[in-house]
Amino acid sequence: MVDTALQSRIREELEVIDPATFDAASQVDLRVAFLADYLRRTGARGYVLGISGGVDSSLGGRLCQLACERVRAEGGQARFVAMRLPYRVQQDEADAQRALAFIRPDEVLTVDIGPSVDAMWQACVDAGLERGVTGAAAQRDDYHKGNVKARARMIAQYTVAGVRGMLVVGTDQAAEAVVGFFTKFGDGACDLTPLTGLPKRRVKQLAHHLGAGEEVVEKVPTADLEEEKPLIPDEVALGVSYAEVDDYLEGVEVSDEAEAVIVGWYRRTAHKRALPVTPGTAPPV
Q: Which pTM value belongs to this model?
């Protein structure tokens, strides 16, 4: 049986939208209004967001573009910069281009993070970082270098945002948040998250509502950070499907196995959702 008390607490913590009252049109307007209002209140000149080709960044990008257009219609100066941040050559570049066609951003900037990632990794190795050569140790190195890629992408976004007087938008949604499927200080770093509270299926519904094609909406989710395991699907890495995660978040009964995996990830990744840890917030050892 699902621990409903914990399930309810998680839903409240992650601001999960009530599926009984969910309406795509009103949710789009709510989130566009949130983005537009934040620009007005902060005086920022627009938004920056990295576009991978997946449905999360596609929806986030389209919401940002609509918000900037709304501000401009009122006499403001807001612009949206979509950033392509491949490591050398992205294997699913065609997906990213389809996403950009859906978003229709004011501007696209492409920054190859390959040279900076390789230089940082090599600098650490030259300083004495021990590397795994084969087997599990090499796989762990590949994983950690993948996190360097995610953090390099955020450095690029904050560089552009700083120079332009803009803000960086994140694409974290409820399904990724509950299992901590993001890199700390990488794609988890941002100024605001307009997709907060949306399970994966609701992200897809909003994207559909805004006219995204099936290839964008149903693209297999992948962080694509590891060179030894390119394009590994999120669900394979997590050991649970997004449908099961969504069911759990929306108060639906899931199998004991699915609950165990979800709650396990939730507990192990708590540090990612509470940054930084302080003497008053550190959990007991």
A: 0.94
